[in-house]
């Protein structure tokens, strides 16, 4: 084809060999589709090349938008290698090429605030005009309102902006253009007139607010011009669904993910460095711990003082003993009323019971509550009950206004806001103390000391990342220095071991080094920058280097080069500077001291260590999290650090900490099961385990980098599919099948049947003239019954023991029953039952792992239901009784089994199945077909509540250490 007449980009060619997943994306996603293309792939996986090849297939002029100048240059460089004519590639908005690469900022909006505020203000003006005002009068009134009542003005703007955010991508171009800078509108118009139809959005997780509105306008203008645009979204991380509005906007622009390249696949193919995530646990320093204990004592005293009043005790009693229904025919017992309270609101009733025991331990109601429900009264329990009491008794009573205000103001001192909607966490000083504890700086020192002491110590190139240069809130923090990069660097610079790494602190305003290293590093930087670097006067162990624009790209690049050369082996900075866009392949160790827990933030930080290092072909990366926990002997509960650890690692794949080579997500790739159990004991305030014990357990299980590389099995074939896992813990107190019970009931049933049959036979023979002495006839009947009883008991016992000897098959059958029911109910798509497996854990035979493959979304739904089936019973609509699984379906025998062995095995029917009675009955039928006899019980009336009480007393079968995980490969 003549290159002159060829469509744009159609002659571009990549002469190399595509990676497996790149080729698979191009093969799986056909060109020319109307829907957006949405690709998720980790840093270093070749997204740039993939995006260019996808765009080239479309044969239209293309615009690439990138978040930074550094990434823009990367696109231009790669595109120039593919294009026959380098002039076809441009990064100049004044000279548009067949492929033009710009930054999102070039198309940014007016002002520093949200663009939605301007749109909201315009809509408010239109509303006022529609009500009869002139446009000038409406604008004047709004301006005066902003001055006279700024709170009311902000509220009006916010409410209209919220509505806009939910539908902004659907706005007409003329409406969207109202908040864009005229230069941005003019540039977009030139792009459209130049024939741009394909838009590649690199790091598209940024499309959450103002950049998204620009893209929406560009897309709308292309359509308005009579063409259908092709959007290609590329990102390493999806935005978090926690922000529903922003996530909805993002999803509306790009739709569902068309293809996700898992990080493990890129590692196994040798295009990213193998890695392992680690965690170090620490506890607050003595001054911080003293502050926490004082805080805990004051908060506990405040809450118990309020909840010990007669009015509060009356509220607790009323909730635990609700009034009888008007149509009740018989008076309820206290136990029945308690059952009804649990059935109405299990969580609140349990908290009320725990608080009642806390403030009035001798109260007679305490004896009626099942002991299994009365564990430790946590801070959350106290706050939950206080919130409900304040709303029910204080807020609704005009005479209690002073007490309401007292509680509200007192809680504010502890970082809690009491409102008419309940208690909301504000800036909690305890969370701040833990998140920015000076103990984390000491942990960073210990981590680097251990890394340097390892076999690859001379290869260590580390980066320590913090949230801030200096944290402005020092309440509760020990020492004079505020938390942040400066404090962390100060400790690393004076430690005898870490100082040998010649650390450098780099922020937007600081370039700091050790005094002993200042001269050498200043000279080296000066050579790289082409200008002299000065050393500021000062005293003490550190010095500031004097350079223009310390945080500029050229200075960051120069410091990165020093790391590559080994002149500097430790860099300390903030995530704003050393996060997305910073590229230094020599870095192999990350110490993450930030509070980041979102998917995008977490994966972007870890992406800094995963690039291949030409100087170390066997590179293995270590990524560290540091968690500060409140000691067991302090009753105050704060789950912020633990929740952050869970959230952070729920987004990540990694090698299982058990050393079995599995690739899992969640805590399973940073903590072994014993470590998770020890961690749980610390959180539960179990005095048998200290944070030091937990730390020692974790430290003993850190494998070497060489072992990590072996476990990744790089270059070996792999299966790129994801599975959900539910882990079940077998316990003698909660067997799934009761062998002795079924055997005894079967024996009695067999005896009765055998005796009756023998008696009938003797009677028939007597009718035909065969005479028997009465005693002989009775003896024959008893013998017949005994033989039948023995046979029945043996048969039942053999079946039950066989089932108990292969528990994995039984649990798999249970999961299949759940899956079949959900499929028939239309909750999931067609299920491949061969993708449902169960097996004992290699290291712990008492743990059964149920794995669910197939569609990722369907597997998650089924796993949720299976987990609920075996979890502690709370407030189900139906219970499934399964303890007589070996018996025939004879009601008399079931009752007999219950008498002979009163313990019952009751499982909660998952909520998604229990919504319709027909679905619950189908689940019961599938259980009978796959496992054995069972019975379905709807929880209504006194009998239902009594059955629920029995079910709640049973142990959970879900593994408390790692109940859920995802497995890849």
A few lines on this structure:
With 969 residues, the protein is an alpha/beta fold. The protein has 36 helices and 27 strands.
Strand order of the largest sheet: 8-18-17-11-16-12-13-15-14
Percent of residues in β-strands: 5-15%
In which range does the helix fraction lie? 40-55%
Query: Stretches where pLDDT falls below 50 for ≥5 residues?
Result: 738-748, 885-903
Please report the number of helical segments: 36
Summed over residues and divided by their number, the pLDDT gives a mean of 82
Query: What characterizes the major β-sheet?
Result: 9 strands, mixed
Q: How many beta-strand runs?
A: 27
Q: What distance separates the N and C termini? A: 43 Å
Provide a descriptive summary of the structure in words.
The chain has 969 residues and is an alpha/beta fold. The protein has 36 helices and 27 strands. The chain has a 9-stranded mixed beta sheet, sandwiched between helices. Strands 3-4-2-5-6-1-7 form a 7-stranded parallel beta sheet. A 6-stranded antiparallel beta sheet has the order 19-20-27-21-23-22. A hairpin with a 7-residue loop joins strand 19 and strand 20. Helix 14 packs across helix 15 and helix 15 (346-359) packs across helix 16 (379-395). The longest helix is centred in the C-terminal third of the chain and has 32 residues, at 774-805. Residues 738-748 and 885-903 have low confidence and may be disordered.
């Amino acid at each position: 084809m003549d290159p002159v007449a060829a469509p744009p980009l159609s002659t571009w060619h990549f002469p190399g060999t595509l990676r497996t997943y790149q080729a698979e994306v191009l093969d799986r996603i056909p060109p020319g589709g109307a829907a957006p293309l949405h690709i998720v792939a980790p840093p270093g996986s070749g997204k740039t090349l993939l995006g260019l090849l996808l765009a080239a297939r479309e044969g239209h002029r293309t615009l690439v938008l990138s978040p930074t100048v550094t990434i823009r240059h990367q696109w231009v460089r790669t595109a120039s290698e593919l294009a026959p004519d380098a002039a076809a590639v441009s990064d100049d908005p004044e000279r548009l090429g067949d492929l033009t690469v710009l930054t999102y900022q070039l198309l940014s909006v007016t002002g520093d605030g949200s663009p939605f505020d301007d749109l909201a203000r315009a809509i408010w003006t239109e509303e006022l005009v529609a009500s009869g005002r002139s446009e000038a009068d409406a604008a004047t009134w709004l301006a005066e309102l902003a001055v006279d009542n700024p709170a009311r003005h902000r509220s009006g703007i916010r409410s209209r902006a919220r509505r806009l955010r939910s539908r902004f991508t659907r706005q007409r171009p003329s409406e969207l253009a109202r908040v864009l800078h005229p230069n941005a509108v003019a540039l977009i118009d030139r792009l459209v007139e130049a024939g741009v139809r394909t838009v590649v959005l690199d790091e598209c997780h940024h499309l959450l607010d103002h950049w998204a509105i620009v893209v929406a306008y560009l897309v709308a203008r292309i359509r308005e011009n009579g063409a259908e645009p092709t959007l290609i979204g590329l990102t390493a991380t999806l935005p978090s669904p926690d922000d529903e509005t922003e996530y909805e906007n993002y999803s509306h622009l790009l739709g569902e993910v068309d293809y996700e390249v898992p990080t493990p696949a890129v590692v196994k193919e040798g295009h990213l460095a193998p890695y392992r995530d680690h965690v170090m646990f620490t506890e607050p320093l003595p001054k911080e711990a003293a502050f926490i204990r004082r805080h805990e004592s004051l908060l506990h005293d405040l809450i118990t003082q309020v909840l010990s009043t007669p009015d509060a005790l009356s509220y607790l009693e009323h909730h635990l003993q609700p009034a009888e229904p008007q149509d009740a025919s018989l008076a309820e017992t206290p136990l029945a009323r308690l059952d009804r309270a649990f059935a109405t609101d299990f969580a609140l009733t349990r908290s009320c019971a725990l608080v009642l025991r806390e403030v009035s331990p001798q109260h007679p109601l305490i004896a009626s509550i099942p002991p299994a429900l009365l564990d430790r009264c946590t801070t959350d329990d106290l706050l939950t009950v206080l919130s409900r009491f304040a709303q029910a008794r204080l807020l609704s009573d005009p005479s209690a206004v002073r007490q309401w205000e007292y509680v509200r103001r007192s809680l504010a001192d502890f970082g809690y806001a009491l409102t008419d909607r309940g208690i909301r966490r504000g800036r909690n000083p305890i969370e701040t103390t833990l998140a920015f504890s000076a103990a984390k700086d000491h942990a960073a020192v210990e981590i680097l000391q251990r890394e340097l002491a390892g076999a690859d110590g001379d290869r260590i190139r580390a980066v320590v990342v913090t949230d801030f240069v200096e944290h402005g809130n020092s309440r509760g923090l020990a020492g004079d220095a505020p938390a942040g990069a400066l404090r962390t660097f100060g400790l690393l610079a004076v430690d005898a071991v870490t100082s040998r790494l010649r650390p450098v602190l780099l922020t937007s305003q600081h370039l700091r080094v050790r005094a002993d290293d200042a001269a050498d590093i200043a000279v080296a930087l000066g050579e790289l920058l082409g200008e002299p670097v000065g050393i500021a006067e000062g005293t003490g162990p550190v010095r500031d280097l004097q350079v223009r624009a310390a945080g500029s790209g050229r200075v960051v690049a120069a410091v990165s080069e020093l790391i590559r050369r080994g002149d500097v082996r430790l860099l300390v900075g903030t995530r704003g500077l050393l996060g997305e866009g910073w590229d230094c392949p020599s870095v192999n160790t990350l110490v993450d001291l930030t509070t980041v827990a979102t998917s995008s933030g977490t994966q972007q930080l870890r992406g800094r260590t995963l690039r291949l290092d030409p100087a170390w072909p066997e590179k293995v990366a270590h990524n560290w999290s540091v968690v500060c926990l409140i000691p067991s002997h302090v009753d105050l509960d704060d789950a912020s650090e633990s929740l952050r650890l869970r959230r952070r690692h729920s987004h990540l794949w990694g090698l299982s900490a058990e050393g079995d080579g599995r690739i899992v997500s969640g805590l399973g790739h940073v903590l072994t099961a014993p470590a998770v159990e020890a961690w749980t004991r610390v959180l539960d305030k179990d005095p048998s385990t200290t944070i030091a014990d937990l730390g020692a357990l974790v430290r003993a299980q850190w494998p070497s980098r060489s072992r990590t590389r072996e476990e990744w099995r790089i270059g070996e074939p792999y299966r790129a599919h994801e599975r959900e896992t539910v882990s079940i813990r077998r316990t003698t107190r909660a067997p799934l099948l009761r062998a002795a019970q079924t055997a005894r009931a079967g024996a009695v049933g067999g005896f009765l049947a055998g005796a009756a049959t023998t008696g009938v036979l003797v009677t028939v023979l007597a009718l035909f003239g065969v005479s028997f002495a009465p005693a002989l006839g009775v003896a024959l009947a008893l013998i017949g019954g005994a033989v039948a009883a023995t046979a029945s008991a043996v048969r039942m016992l053999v079946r039950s023991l066989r089932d108990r000897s292969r528990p994995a098959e039984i649990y798999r059958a249970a999961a299949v029953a759940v899956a079949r029911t959900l499929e028939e109910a239309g909750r999931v798509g067609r299920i491949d039952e061969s993708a449902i497996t169960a097996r004992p854990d290699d290291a712990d035979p008492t743990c059964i792992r149920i794995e669910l493959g197939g569609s990722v979304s369907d597997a998650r739904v089924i796993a949720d239901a299976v987990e609920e089936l075996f979890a502690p019973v709370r407030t189900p609509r139906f219970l499934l009784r399964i303890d007589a699984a070996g018996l025939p379906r004879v009601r008399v025998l079931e009752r007999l089994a219950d008498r002979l062995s009163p313990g019952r095995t009751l499982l909660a029917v998952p909520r998604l199945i229990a919504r319709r009675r027909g679905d619950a009955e189908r689940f019961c039928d599938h259980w009978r077909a796959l496992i054995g006899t069972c019975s379905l019980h709807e929880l209504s009336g006194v009998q239902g509540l009594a059955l629920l009480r029995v079910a709640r007393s049973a142990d959970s079968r879900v593994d408390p250490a790692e109940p859920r995980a995802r497995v890849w490969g």
